[in-house]
Amino acid sequence: MDDERKFDELIEEVIGLLDEKKYKQTRDVLLEYNAADIAEILTEILDEVSLDETIIAFRMLPKDISVDVFSCLSIDDQVEIINGITDREINYIIDELDFDDKIDVLDELPAIVVNKILEQTPKNERSQINTFLNYPDNCAGTLMTPEYISLQIGWTVEEALAHIKNVGMDSETIYTCYVKESGRKLFGIISLRSLVVSESNTPISDLVETDFVAVNVMEDQEEVYEKFRKYGYLALPVVDNEDRLVGIITMDDILDVIEEETTEDIERMSGIMDKGTSEYLDTSVWTQVKNRLPWLLGLMCSYIITGGIISGFENSLSKCISLVAYMPMLMGTGGNSGSQSATLVIRGLAVGDVALKDVFRVLWKEIRVALIVGICLSAFNFVRIYIVEGHMSPESLPIAITVCVAMIVIVIIAKSIGSMLPLLAQKIGIDPALMASPMISSLTDLVSVTTYFMLAVAILGV
Length: 462
Fold this sequence. Notes:
The chain has about 450 residues and is mainly α. The chain folds into three domains: about 5-135, MgtE N-terminal fold; about 150-250, CBS-domain (Roll), CATH 3.10.580; about 295-460, SLC41 divalent cation transporters, integral membrane domain (Tetracycline Repressor, domain 2, Orthogonal Bundle). It contains 21 helices and six strands. The protein has helices at about 5-20, 25-30, 35-50, 50-60, 65-70, 75-85, 85-95, 100-110, 110-120, 125-135, 140-145, 155-165, 190-195, 220-230, 250-270, 285-310, 315-320, 325-350, 360-390, 395-430, 435-460; strands at about 150, 175-180, 185-190, 215, 235-240, 245-250. The strands form two sheets. A three-stranded mixed β-sheet has the order 1-2-3.
């Protein structure tokens, strides 16, 4: 399925077979691929043809495969299919899904459908589902699954392995097991490798690791991701405020968080007020307008201030009209310089390379970088303005000096602002990604114009 052309031909083939009502052949073609590929095919059919055709193709799959395919679909596609199949089919799919996938689906369904499903769910599981559904958005509780292997501290290796064989097929992972004391309190972790290579009569208390990393059930999902990134685990235990084990979070759940957080940061860096939960083509025009308009209005107001500053120097401009020609270059260079620094600092904050305590180190480094960059850019412009364009005339020298000095000062100020704003945002509890390109460009334009004209008045005396 790597070849895009082959994939397009496959979609056309499946759609053609469905149109001709050759359902058995359609089923045979779909079953040549794995669940993830079939899910991709169904998504294309849903986008290009109709929900009815997608439902027909989905229903032709064997029950066990249909559940795997369903789990690979996006939440939006899952909800559409749920709305198009019978209650019996819904109950089968929900019952067979992994617990964390089940919670994700139920969280998106209308309340009336959820209630209908829960009515036919065993009482113990219904209580557990309700608990998971009531966790706040974006906390560890919404990511975890209760399908883990727990062992008791008093067991031997033989008893532990027997328990793993008994419940392993229903667990999210068997590679790491969680050892509990009385009262469900998490005592430590133990790897399957340690159990397999140990003598059968060895107490697991001799093998358990008590120096482990856990996350609190209410911990923010971004902090959970940071722990996965830092420690490199495939799964992390989730505990409540009394250190009782309530679930685990696996790496596949964190991959979804990474995508969501990255999308959110990119949108905020572009001045889009969105949570990154909907795909671009699935988001309505009105929603897109609401997401983009507030930032654009705010940024437009900053440019009104910039225009006011330019108007204030109108007399100076009338005396030396050639100053206007260099304004776009200086403003653009300032904006780009600030955005460079902001991007690097935001990235450093995101991956943990930069912390608030590093504020003076960051500022000193950016000032040194800005000084060197500013001198190089100024040297280039001096040659261009004084030698190439001005032909070394006496009139062009003061203008060249003004532009070059302004360039150095603007780059230093822009890089200082660009590096400090994300740290300031972090300090006051705002997402540093908000202090990216649009915000930096607006501020540096304001600073660039003011700096340029003040230097022009001082050097040229206009």
